[in-house]
């Protein structure tokens, strides 16, 4: 009897009357709420391919397409086997395609379903990156509503907890770069990010772990930028330990001659931005790892031409000489913007420039 009822729900999806199809989807939505057995039966009976078909048809009404997305999201909230079945039916590219629609309610329904699918441990997170146009489009949707921000940040944050070593670094770096773009001068997004949990751990602490010395330099630097932008946006206090004890020292470390010129430029500019409005951070930075003296080395590029036999190195030094000087001046200006003692310290290293 139960299976016959389930089959009836699926059969109604094929009715030639669009209004009856819509009502059938609505009834299906009500039937699957909190009922994992009903969800499993509907999946076995082939409801998913039909729902996806209706969702993707431009001739379907927006109401029908939205209801289909809601039902698919409900099916995804069942068991892991449900998620596997949905992924096997190519639900992810279908929902990504749905995001191209202009209707906000439909977009939110698609994103909510995508969120549910992606936070499942059985969903391969690299599916987020199969189409290179997806990430930029997701980012463009952030400002549409609070719900789009919530769902998209949760999708991105899931990428940070992948444990499959083969693509771990690449996926995390892509997620980090997205976060840094999202958080820059955006208070609302930063406040959303700071409340995201990854396996019970706040996202800022995930970023802190990514700044550890045993992580790739690019990852350390990008994680520091994420926390810097969240701090400047007001989502993290300037006296928070993740800023004072982790982010600031990481950025100072990036300014040393042990790193590539490009990394030194990015590290200095990010550090200048972090501490620009905060006197205490300026004081701490001025006494960390001889930063003031370290910056004087930024003015020593390009190296003496007579000492360079490698033309490629000379070209590289010439290319970045201006960027290095500009970054050093920005950081010196930020360091000495409020404290007279720091200004005197900066002036004292002037002969070294």
Automatic annotation (TrEMBL):
Superkingdom: Eukaryota
Cellular component GO terms held in the UniProt record: cytoplasm; GID complex; nucleus
Residues in ARM repeats: 46-82
This protein's UniProt keywords: Cytoplasm, Nucleus, Repeat
Subcellular location: Cytoplasm; Nucleus
GO BP annotation list: proteasome-mediated ubiquitin-dependent protein catabolic process
SUPFAM superfamilies per UniProt: ARM repeat
Major localization listed first in the record, in broad terms: cytoplasm
Signal peptide range in chain numbering: none
Gene3D superfamilies, alphabetized: Leucine-rich Repeat Variant
InterPro entries named in the record: ARM-like, ARM-type_fold, Armadillo, ARMC8/Vid28
Designated name of the protein: Armadillo repeat-containing protein 8
Species name: Periophthalmus magnuspinnatus
Organismal lineage: Eukaryota, Metazoa, Chordata, Craniata, Vertebrata
